[in-house]
Structure formats: structure tokens, C-alpha cells
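Objective 1b. Sequence-to-structure analysis of DUF674 family protein.
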Amino acid sequence: MLNGNSYMGSIDNLYQSISVLDRSKYLRSSYVMDMLLKTPLAHHFKISNQMLPIDEVSAVGYACDSKKNYGEVVSGSLVSSNGGSYSTNLRSCIHLEYLEPQSSIGEAYNNYGGRGFTKKPSLYMVTDDLVVTPGSSTSAITVLTKLRIPLSDVMECSINIGQNECLSILKASLISSSALTNGLSQFLTKFT
């Protein structure tokens, strides 16, 4: 990620160590090197406003082939376009479609929908230890009461989360259980 410039020391060191390996001596192929250095997201998980430059793997096509004997299915197989066996008669294969692929950018992939990750615009609350729950003003007050924080100690502030903030939260989440506090503290100094 970020070609070894994430500013997370050990992660950058790991990236640099892998990138200088002799591919022909230590790895099976250049493809393996690319998988290690440019690990993609699973298909349907990339979003339109992706903060970090991470690619997405291509979709895998699936088809179903079955053999019938006197109208009764006696054997069947599922074949895929990414290395699965297509040794069966392709004319007897039926292309399978995803019923509801996800899309965070709102477009429909087919007749079944796939318009985003949530059913409607939603508000979520993220706690310091990165627990995500449905949010509302009531749930926020409940959390503050549970933590014994008086409302007079609460200050609302807005922050835009970009690539730097995202990397800072990621770094803090790897070393702390207070990812938001530690990850965003340098960006919130003007509010304190």
C-alpha cells in the first residue's frame, strides 16, 4: 500500500524487504510478488471514494453444467472463469449471475439491485476501540452515561477524514485499543 510510503515504520520496512527480494530465487513468479506488494480488495468491496489506493480483483464468472439421464440430474459441476475446469461442453453451461452484488456508488449491476451497502442513508457511531453501531443522539447519550462522562465535558467537532487521517487511524489501531483518540489526536489539537 502506498509503495512503502505509509509512514508506518514496520509496515514500510516489510514492504521494502519484500520489494528487493530476488524474484527468481525466492518467489515462484512475478505474480506472487505483485500479490504481496499490491494486495487487492475482494470483488465488490471497492468504493467510489476510496481513501487509500487499493485496487479490486476482477469479477469471477461462474457457470453451472449438469448432465441428465432420462430427465433426472445425475451429475453436475460448478465451473469458474479464474482457473476452474471448463472441460465440459460449454454449450450446456448456464451462466450464473450474482443475486445482489454490493455497490457503494449506487449503480445497479443487474435486475436484482445492488444499490449500496445499506438500505437507506444511515448514521453510525464509532467508538474509540472501533466498534461500529447504528447511531442516534439517544445512543450517543447512552454511551456517555455508561462511561460516566458528564454532558458538560462533551464538545462537538467536525473533522474531514482523508488519506493522512485514515493512515493515522490504521496505524493507531495496530498498536492501541484507542484508535480514534490516538489516531486523530494530532488533527484535533485546534479543538482543545
